[in-house]
Amino acid sequence: MSGLQRVAIVAGGGQNLGEALSHRLAEDGYHVVVADLNEESAKNVATEIESTFSSKAIGIKVDLTDEVEVASMVEKTVTEFGQIDLLVYNAGYAKSSKITDFELNAWETSVAVNLTGYFLCAREVSKVMIDQGYGNIIQINSKSGKVGSKHNSGYSASKFGGVGLTQSLALDLAEHNIRVNSIMPGNLLSSPMFQSLLPQYAKKLGIPENEVEQVYIDKVPLKRGCEYDDIANAVIFYASEKAAYCTGQSINVTGGQVMF
């Protein structure tokens, strides 16, 4: 393939933020591998991309916590496109509960999806990128990877781990011309994940569900929630040569709610 034809894997790309990132990368000229546990969603997004943009796309069913399936996903990508320029690890899992009631299964799932999956995808993709002599890895993390989150111990702990993994990967891979960064979004108030947590957040805050979003807006200096486009803009920038001197960073996209 020519150097103008870039290839991106979006892990967890079949819906919500992942779908938006898949579309934005296609718009920016990437061929896109939409990898998701939901095969139908992954293939639907790939079909939409090919009907909307001048990019190629394939949808792949993959359990991102299974190392055999992740290795197969990477192999299929190379077979189809011959290279991997960018990995965006977007898969995420959250369960809100006070620590005294936090179930082990919810904790283990948080670590598996938010951290182990990132590790496996980065490990397998980096092998291809090292052979190429270049590459870019971006983890979609969270502001909860920098500050603790009440009743979200599994999510926050796994996201903190992602920051450490990003820094370690950046050190491992810098000599191979591979950059690794994390993007730390604020609250995606309109996202299905946040909306699904409204009952638990209302209970945590002791307020009606219809007042929860305003509470979270009030915490943000710029007085709005994070949008998919805010994150996509950061992904496009940090994947580009304009960010060529940035690696091992955890970049806030929080409207000023988190500033370090």
Molecular structure report:
- The chain is an alpha/beta fold and 260 residues long.
- The protein has one domain: NAD(P)-binding Rossmann-like Domain (Rossmann fold), CATH 3.40.50.720.
- It is 47% helix and 15% strand.
- The protein has nine helices and seven strands, in the order E-H-E-H-E-H-E-H-E-H-E-H-H-H-H-E.
- It has helices at residues 16-27, 39-52, 67-81, 104-132, 153-173, 192-196, 198-205, 212-218, 228-239; strands at 6-11, 30-36, 57-61, 86-89, 135-140, 178-185, 250-253.
- A seven-stranded parallel β-sheet has the order 3-2-1-4-5-6-7, sandwiched between helices.
- Helix 1 (16-27) links the parallel strand 1 and strand 2 (30-36).
- Helix 3 packs parallel to helix 4.
- The longest helix is centred in the middle third of the chain and has 29 residues, at 104-132.
- The radius of gyration is 18 Å and the shape is globular.
- The N and C termini lie far apart (40 Å).
